[in-house]
Design brief:
The protein is an alpha/beta fold. It is built from eight helices and six strands, in the order E-H-H-E-H-H-E-H-E-H-H-E-E-H. It has helices at residues 18-24, 29-49, 69-85, 88-92, 108-120, 137-153, 164-169, 215-227, and strands at 10-14, 54-61, 95-100, 127-135, 180-183, 202-204. Helix 2 (29-49) runs parallel beside helix 3 (69-85) and helix 3 (69-85) packs parallel to helix 5 (108-120). The two termini are 29 Å apart. Bound molecules: 3-methylbut-3-enyl trihydrogen diphosphate (IPE) (2 copies) and magnesium ion.
């Protein structure tokens, strides 16, 4: 990376194409998820290394429960294993891990592994990894709305206090806006990811299945980000 490049403060990644990566190789989809999980760790560490302060990764949507039980179970077991035994480097690097999403429908073991990781990194401040698991942008807005309505009902806020900042603070996590959103696999859609936070994100859709995404691809993505002219509605 060139020293003068701007590094986006908040990067979002929609981890996609694990299944097709495996199918292309004649492997079961689960092997794609395994390869994707290994690569995710590498990509998270690399983005931290180049100076990205906030990284949100979309690993399981509220809609992904529509998949067959075997695939959902495999993914949940994989999350437990990863969070419990494969995040040592992330913990040691001083990366704070937080989760976004609904806790309902997640098994006890998954919730315990998530709580363990949040707890183990709660004093970390170098950068922040936001793992979006059982996450949906629409559900997040619904849940924020309920929270804000309750605050109003309890007399903690007045109607005039409700603004962009208050809404943002009451989402699952209080994070800065997403600057750069990467979705692998060539699909050109958001699939319910960070609908509020990505309002002015630059979008990037590399035609690469996630397990194949390399550090060099990230460098290319960053170069592309630096070519974009962000106007935020101005001239
Ligand atoms: C992304 O890969 C991982 C999850 C959504 C959990 P997919 O499983 O969506 O892979 P494709 O899109 O079917 O190839
Ligand atoms: C989006 O990918 C969700 C995650 C990456 C976790 P999907 O593969 O579920 O999205 P669709 O179904 O292609 O829109
Ligand atoms: Mg997919």
């Amino acid at each position: 990376m060139n020293g003068e490049s701007i590094i986006p403060k908040h990067v979002g990644i929609i981890v996609d194409g694990n299944g097709r990566w495996a199918t292309k190789r004649g492997l079961p989809r689960s092997m794609g998820h395994k390869a994707g999980a290994e690569n995710l760790k590498k990509i998270c560490l690399y983005l931290d290394e180049i100076g990205v302060k906030y990284l949100s990764v979309y690993v399981f949507s509220t809609e992904n429960f529509k998949r067959d039980n075997k695939e959902v179970d495999f993914l949940m077991d994989l999350f437990v294993k990863m969070f419990k035994s494969e995040f040592d480097e992330i913990i040691e690097r001083g990366i704070k891990v937080v989760f976004s999403g609904r806790r309902n429908r997640l098994r006890k073991e998954v919730l315990e592994a998530m709580d363990y990781l949040e707890e183990a990194t709660s004093e970390n401040h170098n950068s922040c990894l936001n793992i979006c698991l059982n996450y949906g942008g629409q559900s997040e807005i619904v849940d924020m709305t309920k929270k804000v309505c309750q605050m109003y009902k309890d007399g903690e806020i007045s109607l005039d206090d409700i603004d962009v900042e208050l809404v943002s603070k009451n989402l699952y996590n209080d994070l800065p806006p997403v600057d750069f959103l990467i979705r692998t696999s060539g699909e050109l859609r958001l699939s319910n990811f960070m609908l509020y936070q990505a309002s002015y994100a630059e979008l990037y859709f590399p035609d690469i299945y996630f397990p194949d995404l390399t550090e060099k691809d990230i460098d290319e993505a960053m170069e592309e980000f630096n070519r974009r002219n962000r106007r935020f509605g101005g001239n």
